[in-house]
Structures are given as structure tokens and as C-alpha cells.
């Protein structure tokens, strides 16, 4: 069966097409339900116009039993389609959650201001709409013309009256959308801003408390909160007015239909049974429209969430797996590498070209703001705005699957973040824990004995251990994580920034041990002691390579840079 063009539009619509059979079954159940919902109308016509005048009790009992059976069928069909949609929502989540997780992670990596939680909120919004009452209206709405046709068959005036009320309800829905869309959007944005502001301040609670900043920050938070509440109140006020209008129309339509039917009975153009049946048909005809009006806000929210997910998955496609066929050696080459940032007019790195050979130790030095950390991120493929090429064993690093690439790379950022879980899980990168390799990585960085002194050793939760870990201890655990599994390429950004002499000595031993094993180690440092472990030194200044050579020829420039670091100026090297 050929896939319609709409379902070829994106990965998300293709996923909906994948579940077409489930949606078809829901449609069949809806057909059964809506056809059998004519049962009350036909039953009323028979009771009022035939059984009450003919006094045929046995026939009345038989027909009543048949009606009860049909009602049971309706109830079963309602339950079945509800259960199927709930199951469909779960299957949709299972099919997309990993993709959304990877995509929102990459999105946050590229644009740190993006909120990764929002992507899963969008997925939840779409799933809840599919499993909620709102979607039933879209399955039931196509059957409204059948009820309308029956009303016209009873009397044309009743059909016209139903059309009028249908038009009014649709008009209310359009009016509601136009009136409430902007206030609701502003309210949501203000609410997110309040939550983000509060979360960012809680992360720095110690600084805020120690410096007595709580009162000042509370006033700022209160300003954001009051604006949010003001917008929320205005939006709710508009929605309540629309809801009151909808209720007025709903009550009016039932009474006017009954009144119109009574008038036709008086004039002899309709039977009493037809009058009662018309009122039931009117309610059934307009119920899907009424439901759509009631769930219009939810539909708009789900539509925006759907479009946001489409955009997220389109901007961050799944990387092909299986491109790494053998163990990577660790040779890195950069060609015309340009790294930019959206908030900077000038590039951070300006056309760098260099090669970092397999099995060598390379030190990157330079003044603050010269682009060293940016270069480190480019080398491991996590800087978003890059031109030129970063090749790992002649393969563009951005094309490699991160989960396949991860075991071959060790990376230690400046700011070490340890995650919720045990010490062993953090070192083992939350994969299957190889105890021997975890201990080996800890011993390399000189923290094995320290971890054994923790309350539960390697099984100590980081939440429990983190309360008494110093910055240097955290950095050494992060270093053990970077060295876990013997990766081929290790990139360390200021690995000795928080280390004491003992920790720095352990770091130097670990680097020399890695060099002896033929690993490629690239580190950034301002301290001279660690430079003795390097084979080559790259001097970076203002995003440009000033020198890159064997250690001895470059050491004078590196020493001068270290001496003038506090001034942020790189001393020119001798010619």
C-alpha cells in the first residue's frame, strides 16, 4: 500500500502511519458505536408511536431486550477503542522515547538554553491527546451527517435548526481560538521562565545563602511570578467567558429543539415519538462538535507539541550505526577548523589545521579566552557550530554513532559533573560494570584507597559521597571515568586545576602510563609541571595556532605564557 504524502512528511508522521492498523480498528469501533447510537432514536419512535398505541407487550419486551443487547455492544465497543488507544499511546511512546531522548540531548548540547525536559513534555502531550477524550470527537465527527440526515428525514425544519447550532458551535470554537491563543501562550512562556529562574537559583543555593543574596533574588523571582499570575488570571478569565457562552448555547439547543418539535406536533407535522427522538438526535449530532470545542485548547497544544517534535527529530536525525568496523587508533586531524558561537561576532577558532599523531601526548597552552576548551570540545565532536573537518582515524567525527564512538574516547571537561548513581556506575559510564576495569581506572588516578574509605566503597551513591567530596576528588573521579575502558583518545581540559601535589603526581603517572600503551592524550593546562609529560606542545592565542612542535623548542613560549597568564597576554616566542 502506497504511503500518503502527509505521512511521508516527517519521521513522526511516518510513525503514525506505522500504527495505521490500530487507528483503522479504532475507526471500525467508532463506526459500530455511531451506527448503534441510532438505537435510542428508533426505540423511542417505536415505543411512542407503535407500542403505546398497539399495547403489544410481548413485542415491547422483545424489542427492549434487543435494545439492551445493543447497548451492551456499544459499551463493549467504547471500552475496546479506549483500551486500544491507551495501548497505542504506550506503543507510540516506546517507539519514540529513545529517539526523542537522543535528539533533545543533542539539541541541548547545540543550544544549551534549550530545555530538554520540554521535548518529553511535548511527547507526553501528544500521547495524552491520543489517549484522551478529545480524539474521540475526530472519530465521531464524520458520523454527525448521518444524524443530521435522519433529522432532515423527520422534518426539514429540525435539520435546519441543527445546522444553525452546528455553525454557532464552530463559530464559538474559532472565536475561542483567536481570543485565548495569545494569552495562553504568554502564560505558558511566563510559567516556564519562572520555573527556569527558580531552578537556576536553587543550583547556587550555597552562594546565595553565604552572600545574603536571598532577599534580592526573591524580589526578582516575585516580579516574574506576579507577571505570570497576572497573565494566568487574564487567560483564565477569557476561557471562563467562552465556557459560559458554550454552556448557554448547549442548554439553548436542547430546549429550542424540544420546543420546535412540540410546535411541529401541535401542527400535526410530527409525532410525539419523533419529537423525543429529534431531541436525542440533536444532542448526538452536535456532541462531537461540542467535544471539539471543549478540547480545542488541548488540540492546539497537541498540534504545537507535534510540530515541535517534528522539528526536533528533523534537525537531529538518527546517526547511522556500524561505521566503526575496527578499534580506533586515536589519530586526530583537524582541517581548516572554524568554531563559532551565536553570541560572538568573531570566530572562537579561526581556521586551525593540525595533526595529533597516534600514541603521542600533546599539551595545549594559551591565555584565557584563547579557545583551548573550545578546541577540546571540537576534538571530541561536541561543539555545535563547526566548519571544516575533525577526522578521527580519517573518519569525520560528526558522522560516527556516539554510542559506538564513546568507548574509544575519554573526556574530562573543566566542570566535572557526577551523576546520580554509585561511584562505580559513574566511573563505568553507567554501562555494564566491569569491576576490574573500574578498579584499574581508579588506581590509575590514585583514588582507589579514597573510594574504599567511603561508607559503601564503590557502591556509595554519589548523593551520599558528593556531600564530602572536594573539587579535586570530584575531578579525579571524573578522570577515572575518562580513563575507564582504555580509550584510544583521551582529551583532558584542565585536569589538574583542582589537584594537590599528590593528585597531580598521580595524573602525570596516568598520562605516562597511557603513552606507554600507545594512547593519544591531549590535555590543556596552565601548570608547567605537567608539560614535562608532553611530546608536543600547541600554543593557541586568540583562536590561532601560534606554534605547534616538539616540546623542547616550544617550552620557552609555554613558560612565558604561564608566567603572564594572570595578565591574559601571550608573550611572543623567539623567532
Automatic annotation (TrEMBL):
Keywords: ATP-binding, Cell membrane, Membrane, Nucleotide-binding, Transmembrane, Transmembrane helix. It is a multi-pass membrane protein. One of its GO terms (cellular component) is plasma membrane. The keyword ATP-binding applies. Residues 555-575 are annotated as: Disordered. Pfam families: ABC_membrane, ABC_tran. Residues 24-301 form the ABC transmembrane type-1 domain. Residues 559-568 have a biased composition (Polar residues). This is Type I secretion system ATP-binding protein PrsD. It comes from Candidatus Accumulibacter vicinus.
Amino acid at each position: 500500500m502506497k504511503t500518503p504524502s502527509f505521512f511521508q512528511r516527517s519521521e513522526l508522521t511516518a510513525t503514525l502511519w506505522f500504527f495505521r492498523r490500530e487507528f483503522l480498528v479504532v475507526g471500525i469501533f467508532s463506526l459500530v458505536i455511531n451506527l448503534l447510537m441510532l438505537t435510542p432514536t428508533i426505540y423511542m419512535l417505536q415505543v411512542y408511536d407503535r407500542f403505546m398505541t398497539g399495547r403489544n407487550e410481548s413485542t415491547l419486551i422483545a424489542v427492549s431486550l434487543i435494545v439492551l443487547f445493543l447497548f451492551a455492544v456499544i459499551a463493549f465497543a467504547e471500552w475496546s477503542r479506549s483500551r486500544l488507544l491507551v495501548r497505542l499511546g504506550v506503543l507510540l511512546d516506546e517507539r519514540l522515547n529513545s529517539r526523542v531522548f537522543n535528539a533533545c540531548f543533542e539539541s541541548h548540547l547545540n543550544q544549551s538554553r534549550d530545555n530538554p525536559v520540554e521535548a518529553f513534555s511535548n511527547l507526553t502531550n501528544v500521547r495524552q491527546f491520543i489517549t484522551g477524550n478529545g480524539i474521540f470527537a475526530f472519530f465521531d465527527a464524520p458520523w454527525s451527517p448521518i444524524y443530521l440526515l435522519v433529522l432532515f428525514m423527520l422534518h426539514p425544519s429540525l435539520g435546519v435548526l441543527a445546522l444553525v447550532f452546528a455553525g454557532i458551535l464552530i463559530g464559538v470554537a474559532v472565536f475561542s481560538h483567536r481570543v485565548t491563543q495569545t494569552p495562553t501562550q504568554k502564560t505558558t512562556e511566563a510559567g516556564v521562565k519562572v520555573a527556569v529562574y527558580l531552578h537556576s537559583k536553587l543550583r547556587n543555593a550555597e552562594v546565595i545563602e553565604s552572600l545574603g543574596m536571598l532577599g534580592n533574588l526573591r524580589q526578582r523571582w516575585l516580579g516574574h511570578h506576579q507577571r505570570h499570575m497576572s497573565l494566568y488570571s487574564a487567560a483564565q478569565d477569557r476561557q471562563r467567558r467562552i465556557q459560559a457562552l458554550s454552556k448557554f448555547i448547549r442548554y439553548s439547543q436542547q430546549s429550542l429543539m424540544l420546543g420546535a418539535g412540540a410546535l411541529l406536533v401541535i401542527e400535526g407535522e410530527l409525532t410525539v415519538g419523533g419529537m423525543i427522538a429529534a431531541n436525542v438526535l440533536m444532542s448526538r449530532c452536535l456532541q462531537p462538535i461540542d467535544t471539539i470545542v471543549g478540547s480545542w485548547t488541548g488540540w492546539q497544544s497537541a498540534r504545537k507539541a507535534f510540530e515541535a517534535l517534528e522539528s526536533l527529530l528533523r534537525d537531529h536525525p538518527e546517526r547511522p550505526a556500524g561505521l566503526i568496523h575496527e578499534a580506533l587508533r586515536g589519530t586526530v586531524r583537524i582541517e581548516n577548523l572554524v568554531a563559532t558561537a551565536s553570541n560572538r561576532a568573531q570566530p572562537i577558532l579561526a581556521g586551525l589545521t593540525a595533526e595529533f599523531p597516534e600514541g603521542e601526548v600533546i599539551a595545549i597552552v594559551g591565555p584565557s579566552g584563547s579557545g583551548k576548551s573550545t578546541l577540546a570540545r571540537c576534538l571530541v565532536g561536541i561543539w555545535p557550530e563547526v566548519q571544516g573537518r575533525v577526522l578521527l582515524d580519517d573518519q569525520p567525527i560528526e558522522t560516527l554513532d556516539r554510542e559506538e564512538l564513546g568507548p574509544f574516547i575519554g573526556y574530562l571537561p573543566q566542570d566535572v559533573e557526577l551523576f546520580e548513581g554509585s561511584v562505580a556506575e559513574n566511573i563505568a559510564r553507567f554501562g555494564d560494570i566491569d569491576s576490574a576495569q573500574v578498579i584499574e581506572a581508579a588506581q590509575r588516578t590514585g583514588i582507589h584507597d579514597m573510594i574504599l574509605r567511603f561508607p559503601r566503597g564503590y557502591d556509595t551513591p554519589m548523593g551520599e559521597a558528593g556531600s564530602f567530596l572536594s573539587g579535586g576528588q570530584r575531578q579525579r573521579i571524573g578522570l577515572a571515568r575518562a580513563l575507564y575502558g582504555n580509550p584510544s583518545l583521551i582529551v583532558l581540559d584542565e585536569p589538574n586545576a583542582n589537584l594537590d601535589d599528590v593528585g597531580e603526581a598521580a595524573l602525570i603517572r596516568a598520562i605516562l602510563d597511557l603513552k606507554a600503551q600507545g594512547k593519544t592524550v591531549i590535555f590543556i593546562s596552565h601548570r608547567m609541571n605537567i608539560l614535562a609529560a608532553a611530546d608536543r606542545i600547541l600554543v593557541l592565542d586568540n583562536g590561532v595556532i601560534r606554534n605547534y612542535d616538539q616540546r623542547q623548542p616550544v617550552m620557552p613560549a609555554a613558560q612565558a605564557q604561564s608566567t603572564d597568564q594572570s595578565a591574559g597576554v601571550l608573550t611572543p616566542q623567539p623567532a
